[in-house]
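Bench notes, afternoon.
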Amino acid sequence: MIKLSRFAVEESIRCPRCFVLAYKHKIRLPMIPFTLNLALDELVKNEFDYYRLEAKPHPIFLENNINAIPFSHAKMNDWRNNFRGAYFTDEQKGFTFGGAIDDIWEKPDSQLIIADTKGTAKEKFDWNQISQTPWGKSYQRQLEMYQWTFRNLGYDVAQEGYLLYYNARKKEQMFNQKMKFDFHLVRLEGDDSWVESAILRAKEYLEQKNIPEASCDCEKCNYLKQRWLLSREEAVIN
């Protein structure tokens, strides 16, 4: 049984070679923790938990005509915990897959909406532009992977998902130990039809003997390739 996180499958999509090196051979570059982003996530969760306990819609829902309330469930804290998360196991196909969600909202008909929090600090926020970047595309896939997970856990999951996007203001005259944000709610229509094949492909990468080819646009692999070529040139000169 192979356990794969949402982040692991995302990495297998971006670059199969980096994925195998990281998850099979434990060779990876150290990751810098995004502590400010983690703090933002925690603050947003706390705010939604207030309305969850009250069983009332968050003001964001009222402002955007979203007929839902924050979903209340005994496993919510586990599902949102990076070390536990929400995972589905397919015994027949030999994998466990899932990850830690940010939030879930519930419609009156019990259908669930998956939501994720994002933070940035851009001069001008333009989702149409962000959505065309590798990171923007990964946000769409992230929601769809979570939708797939909860559908397979037996929940009725809505096609729509939401990004709660907080864009920090960098041009404020005074800081006063307070960071201000502009809020953007991004609605995305999900299609999780590709998710299982991506999980199985990632599983296959880990099970095969050969290390797969690098992605042509992988920054890490291209950096290492150029460094190796430069080292060869220097060795020939010397």
